[in-house]
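Q: Sequence in, structure out?
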Amino acid sequence: MWHQHLAILPILIPLFTALLQLLPWGDRPQPKRRAIGLGASILTLVASAFLVIEVNSQEMLVYLLGNWEAPFGIVLMVDKLSAMMMLLTAILALPVLVYGCYSEDNLGSHFHALFQFQIMGIMGAFATGDLFNLFVFFEVLLISSYALLMHGGGKFRVRATLHYVLLNLLGSALFLISVGTLYGVTGTLNMADMAVKIQALSGDQAVLAKAGALMLLIVFGLKAALLPLHFWLPQAYSTTSGVVAALFAIMTKVGIYSIIRVYTLIFGADANELALVAHDWLWVMGLLTMLAGAVGILAARDLRLMVAYLVVISVGTILTAYSLFSTQTTGAALFYLIHSTFITGALFLLADVMAFERGKTASRIVSGKKMANHSTYAVMFLVSAVAIIGLPPLSGFVSKLMILESASANGHNFWLWAAIIGATFIMLVAVTRAGSKMIWHTLSGKPSDQSAALGKRISIASLLLLSLLMTVFANPIQQYTQSVAEQLERTEDYPNWVLEAPEVSDE
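A: Exactly. Output:
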């Protein structure tokens, strides 16, 4: 049956699409590559939507590659969290790719193939059931991100890419060391099997496993841009092209997903001596990450840089809420994760078109000439500002309210309330200042004669529309994120599902 192979489709579709797009395709290859890429993105979106439907009814899909039994073979493990993240990636990728098809893909070589390899790496990281293949998919998405970060060239991008590459090479080395340490102690790389074996560790073995767990936290913290490992993100995201920055809105979420997966399943409440080994660190670092992001947006003199720091604030908010380790706060944090991905993606694209139409002032937060589509961008900026700050009635307000309400029953609620309300106030000041300078106080004279393509504006509007839809359908989305958190809490189910998974039938 086709649905038995559903778990691997969001990985195979972008893989084969990228290979197809590397073919020469005659004298005018770009239109063909665009058509192939858009068709594949729609297929990936459909497959991801079916995955969400399947795991809603079956709880989890386990796919044994080559029918090798777990924990000896490679296994894909798609539960509600994995399916949600895969669908989120597919939804974000489609409007971003449409935006890129309006000549953004001509700025560098092989944009479409790299875009699909990036999607493949992200999807694989969300679906894999063992730590080594998590490392492999990290490398796939990182290698494509190195080239995408350079898309369009320029000395600032070269410098930012160099920092990004060096840091991630260091992170990859640390990843291998930590995985090797955990393998040496437990004798397995399968996450479900490791979760069982970790519970039996004690003494020196537990100390070694703790060292491996904390090294993994550094690696995932680097990917997620958690303080003090966040400093690469603002420079990298603000100097690359708008379309690449918008796609990268999901990149930090891969690090956040890995933290949630590993420190709930393997080092969660049932891990005996290693129970909740990272949560105190996540609590402190999450709060400080919010603070660092708030300082960053106040100091930012460029809209792209400000949006990059808004990403940092969102990372701090999600991980601080998760560190409380309650079902309600984790569910609320996942709702906020979805919201922040769409809005920061839209803001990166909006900053890009505004920079194009403003001419010399580009995306600097100073008064400039009126843009050709000034009124349209004013409305878009207002909607995105209300959403990202967290003002009523959009999804940012709904998600922050969920986090604050769910934290009320926890002893740390004062600090969480203070951090989120404080960050919200600073975001209000910074975003209002940017809007006032760039949209309200424009220079006299005729508007710019450079107008961004209608398709680009539609792509941005579609991402903003998703925030509106999240507000309208807040209740069913919240129910789903809560069910994800409840499933994460039932850690005893994972080993049973994975280690007793049946072979894939040929019928």
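The CA atoms of residues 237 and 245 lie 5 Å apart.
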